[in-house]
């Protein structure tokens, strides 16, 4: 467990980025509905790929870039409501402020994820020690914002620690447990895989498929055509991303066949002459 300041000083940076990102998310929701917000959130798939290439110097093939764009298209397709439903509003009806904040949110999410992967792989520290440092700084920065809000409000509702757990019930604690477990799983992906695996396999395609199955079973949800098409597109993009570069065209067999064919043609022409 490294305690040198050279290593520890990297952890406040993603904590600040996540803090700003969370505030931008709430600000975005004041300008657009949840469906449009989800569609705008798919931009983080593409921005993560771009920052993944720029900051971590990980080269992606043209096929993998196509798979990333196809994944964003698939998730967007699954979230668009059909005109047979109760709401058929255009996803482009929000004010320009909402779209700018949505783009900023996608960029901040990608930046925080890529930077977190960078310092988690920088040394061989325990993953749990890295999580302790990351979330300790995150809690301190959020605590500072709560104190600042109290000063701005003149402590009308009392100090923040007296109302910190107001409204908590068993459902709230289950959500906290779920998100905490999700954070641990994502940290494992950051440490031993990468952000592309996170957005492609974990948080997008598999989660979308599992959510559909559970919704059908628990809430009698009727899957739409857009949802089925989106899942199929996402599965195709996964296959494209993890496929070997030589899979689309078997160049080896083509290269072997060409000289033999040319040889046969030349021999036939000699015999005719």
Q: Can you walk through the features of this model?
A:
This protein has about 270 residues and is mainly alpha-helical. It has one domain (about 5-135, about 180-270). Helices cover about 75% and strands about 0% of the residues. Residues about 250-255 have low confidence and may be disordered.
Give the low-confidence spans. Answer: 251-257
- The assigned structural class equals mainly alpha
Task: Write down the secondary-structure element order.
Answer: HHHHHHHHHHH
Oligomer: single chain
Query: What's the average pLDDT?
Result: 78
- Gyration radius, to the nearest Å? 25 Å
Query: What overall form do the CA principal axes indicate?
Result: globular
Percentage beta strand: under 5%
Major sheet characteristics:
none
- The count of β-strands is 0
How many separate domains?
A: 1
Question: Number of helix segments?
Answer: 11
Subcellular location: Membrane
GO cellular component, one term: Golgi membrane
Main location: membrane
Protein name: CMP-sialic acid transporter 1
């Amino acid at each position: 467990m490294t305690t040198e300041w050279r290593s520890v000083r990297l952890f406040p940076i993603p904590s600040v980025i996540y803090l700003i990102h969370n505030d931008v998310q709430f600000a975005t929701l004041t300008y657009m509905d949840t469906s449009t917000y989800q569609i705008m959130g798919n931009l983080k798939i593409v921005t993560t790929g771009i920052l993944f290439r720029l900051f971590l110097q990980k080269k992606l093939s043209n096929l993998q870039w196509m798979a990333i764009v196809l994944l964003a298209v698939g998730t967007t397709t699954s979230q668009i409501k059909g005109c047979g439903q109760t709401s058929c509003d255009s996803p482009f009806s929000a004010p320009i402020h909402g779209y700018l904040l949505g783009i900023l949110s996608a960029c901040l999410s990608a930046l925080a994820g890529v930077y977190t992967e960078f310092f988690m792989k920088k040394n061989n520290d325990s993953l749990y020690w890295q999580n302790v440092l990351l979330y300790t700084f995150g809690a301190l920065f959020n605590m500072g914002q709560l104190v600042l809000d109290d000063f701005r409000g003149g402590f009308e509702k009392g100090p923040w620690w007296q109302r910190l757990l107001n409204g908590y019930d068993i459902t709230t604690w289950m959500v906290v447990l779920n998100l905490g477990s999700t954070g641990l799983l994502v940290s494992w992906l950051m440490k031993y895989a990468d952000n592309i695996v996170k957005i492609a396999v974990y948080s997008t395609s598999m989660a979308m498929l599992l959510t559909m199955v559970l919704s059908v079973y628990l809430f009698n949800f009727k899957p739409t055509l857009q949802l089925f098409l989106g899942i199929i597109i996402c599965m195709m993009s996964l296959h494209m991303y993890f496929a070997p570069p030589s899979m689309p065209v078997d160049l080896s067999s083509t290269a072997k066949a060409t000289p033999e064919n040319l040889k046969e043609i030349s021999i036939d022409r000699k015999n005719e002459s």
